[in-house]
Amino acid sequence: MRHCIYPGTFDPITFGHLDVLERATKLFDRVTVALALDTTKAPLFSAAEREAMIRPNVARYTNVSIVTFSGLLVNFAVEQKAVAIIRGLRALSDFEFEFNMALMNRHLDESIETIFVMPSEQFSYTSSSLVKQIAKLGGDMANFVPANVAAELKKKFAA
Fold it and tell me: Is 128 annotated as catalytic?
């Protein structure tokens, strides 16, 4: 069984993330959405909140699970018996960072491959950071995140 890890902070999950996830479900028998706990980012949502927003949006996939992890991603992938890490590339600006990360992961454990997947072009400019800015300023998020995520963003910024 071919298993991959789709890691990220998913703070919050966007249609772009879900597009990459759907592509991964077609390439692998099993996909683990791995919510990163150790990050240099300061997430708006807790890990439990992020997982709660993701869960209903992946329920239709029988081969997707969601877990939190801390520590090195490549070590987590080995522990999970995954053969690959899936990373979404929106634009050329993502490539340098992701390329360096993939090379470092290969150096740490060459048994784990990194697969770069491009989302549909309609999501190529979408990022969690931009979505949070739109939400904070009261903009319409319908084209960027699922309805349940938009509702949680509205609640977070109304407080």
Answer: yes
Q: Where are the domains of the chain?
A: 3-123
Question: Which member of 90, 124, 127, 156 is catalytic?
Answer: 90
For the domain made up of 3-123, give the CATH fold. Rossmann fold (3.40.50)
Q: What is the DSSP letter of 118?
A: P
Concerning whether 46 is annotated as a catalytic residue, the answer is no
Residue 87: strand pairing partners: 116
**pLDDT digits 0-9 by tens, 15-35:** 999 999 999 999 999 999 999
pTM of the model: 0.93
Whether 26 is catalytic:
no
> pLDDT (tens digit, 9 = 90+) per residue, 112-135?
999 999 888 888 888 899 999 999
Contacts of 81 (CB under 8 A, 6+ apart): 3
The length of the chain, given as a count of residues:
159
The active-site residue out of 23, 30, 128, 132 is: 128
